[in-house]
Amino acid sequence: MDKVPMTVGGFAALEVELRHRQQVERQRIIAAISEARALGDLSENAEYHAAKEAQSLNEGRILELESLIGRADIIDVTKLGGDTIKFGATVHLIDDDTEEAKIYQIVGEPESDVRSGKVSVGSPIARALIGKKVGDSVQVNTPGGGKSYEVVSVSFR
Are 79 and 7 in contact (CB under 8 A)? Predict the structure, then answer.
């Protein structure tokens, strides 16, 4: 099994989601299945089929979360340092074309969320950033085309 790198916060979020799915969602879905069964003929019962599908999706996600948690390689970013970009770094960039500031933290795949500034260690931007330092220029090939950034600062928080 391959280890999955993730931050302490990302690991905690997976544990919270797992507990919620096991203790809350599972019970809600069981109740929905029971209510749908009470309506009669199961072959043409849309509520029953929808509840069974929700159960299947929930149980699949539970298995996925258990696997991720079991393979987690938890990295405490606050104990990292240096001026070179690596996993866990929060990087402040300036877009060379638009002068727009961007802030990204390089995190594990399960916790990535571009809208909140968390990019997967395997993403094009993270791969381009790793190993760079403040003042370096970075060329990134994205699905939307090439981008050029300047690294303004690197921190670990």
Answer: no
